[in-house]
Amino acid sequence: MPSINPLAIDDTRWKQRNAWLSTDPEIRLHYIDCPPPDNQTPKGTLLLIHGFPQTSYQFRHVITPLADAGYRVIVPDYRGAGDSSKPASGYTKIVMAKDLLGLVRDILGIKAKIHLVGHDIGGMIAHAYASQYPDYVASVVWGECPLPGTSAYEQTKNTMGMFHFTFQAVPDLPEALVSGRERIYLKHFFERLCLNTAAISRQDLDQYTMSYSQPGALRCGFEIYRAFEKDKEENESWVREAGKCMVPAMGLSGDKSALEKLAEEMVGEVYENFEVGTVEDSGHWIAEENPEDFVRKVVRFVGKYASA
Predict the structure, then answer these.
(1) Of 43, 84, 179, 237, which is the most exposed, with the fewest CB atoms less than 10 Å away?
(2) CA 111 vs CA 42, 142, 213: distances in Å
């Protein structure tokens, strides 16, 4: 069972860095880089990709435990979020995935295949990365998102539970209504989608509120949703032209999440070799609600495809 008390975070091995991508315009990505312990045989690299309305901070409880299992753990703020730059465009998931490919291969010089772990919007980006660059991916874990281009997306995008898909896609109005009320807006999602109510503390909400109160942050977050229909076209095109993605995949959901029942069909529509898993005693925010089981499920799956 997840603890109701805040978990201690060992960040002694973390390096927090900025990287500047050779893009037009130039993109700055903030990221955390945590190596495995010196006494561990390296097993590969994990790239953790956060969701909305979150940042790399969402993985604070799992970075070091995943590294302790033998992995180098890279955790960026994707473009427009956290401490990364806030460009005016480039929020289709294929563009956001290309940013992360540049970080991994060009900036960090990691040429071996990596393991992708994406949650929520990060799951959509992880799927784009695996589909476009399968030769660079050993495995992919993603979930807690109705992927544009799948039946799960069509079934849920206009439902009350996904009201923000429509609201945040409206030009300009969401920024005008939410600006200055970021804490109220973000708190709604954390409370509504959470099983373990101790998972997101007041201090955690403060952190996310600060991130999304930065100039441009709301606009960037909403642009991600405005790109969904383009993402749908691209996802459908990839399957139609190249077939299902052949990268080994796991759809990972909270066992009490409303999206859990859609996971198997959704992942099966776009992956040939896949399984589904659940994080126990968790709603949507799986890495925060039950970090121990999140780590356990990720390590078990990627371990099947790990190599130094």
Answers:
(1) 237
(2) 15, 22, 36
